[in-house]
Amino acid sequence: MSNSCSLTFQNIPSEKTILGSRELLDLSNFLSIQPKNLNMKYAISLSFSLVLFLSACSQPHPSSEETFSAPKLNDDFGSYWYQGKAELASYELKQARYGEIHEGHAVLIFVTEPFSQSKLVKLDNPGGAGTDEVTVMKLNFTRKFNTGIYPYSVMQSIFSPVSMDRYPHMLKTSFSSQEWCGHTFAQLELDKKGYHLTGHSYFESEGEESRDLPLALLEDELWNRIRIQPQGLPTGNQTLIPSMTFSRLKHIPMQPQAVELTLEAGETESTYTIAYQDLPRTVEIRFETAFPHRILGWKETSSGGFGGGSLTTEATLIKTIQSPYWTKNRKSDSYLRQELGIE
Fold it and tell me: What is the pTM of this model?
């Protein structure tokens, strides 16, 4: 994308344009200083154009020939996701590892937050970030299970812009795994060339990793797309970068793969299937058809790796609550873990 910009007012966004909190603040400030006799419709149109112009000039991310559908957000999106609470969903987990199925639990934490496009971190002061701010859906995906004597703790964080029409690509994902043999960390970040992967592992064959990946759709971002607007999910034959959790646990280098994506929309429940063409991996994600499209469970079938053979990881929803969990850190708040069914 060129860094040079030309300002024009010929293309005024429609009323369906999705604005973030900072853009709304800029619009409010602009209107507050206009002369009283200024045509209000023109002022609003001018403000929208200025917002898009400034955003385009500061946008650090690459363009792509791929196009993704970005339907209008559900009318209840703001009242559900912008109320200062996260959605916590617990799952009974049957995790495939070492040729066996191990029981445990998973928790999916979905929350929206202000994010820096340039630093790729949560903003401490969104009000002073200007056009660098973008509202993201963050998913913290945790799994805990035991393999024999020792426990596994696996977590992945995924950051996807809510306004997919303006920001069509996931911005960042990071992964960490801790078990008694050691721990590993990996991170994938969007940059001007595509994605950059960094990794650190206690395995000699993996060690330190730093390399570029082409701009492509990622399996990890599909979870957030389901929550934002499942009607815009890509289908058919696509190129997809596999899940970072899958890649690291299987010790397979991350690279784009051919997949077939299908969406079966039922009256109350829908299923999104990811079938890899050259990897022994299939993922089925079940979710509520109606908003807010809660994740009801999933299956991951794959073969190879430690233990060999084909096994299926499966997760089934236990409980969903909404909570500002970051404030629930007192001993008296531990009842919420029982409520989620994870203790």
Answer: 0.80
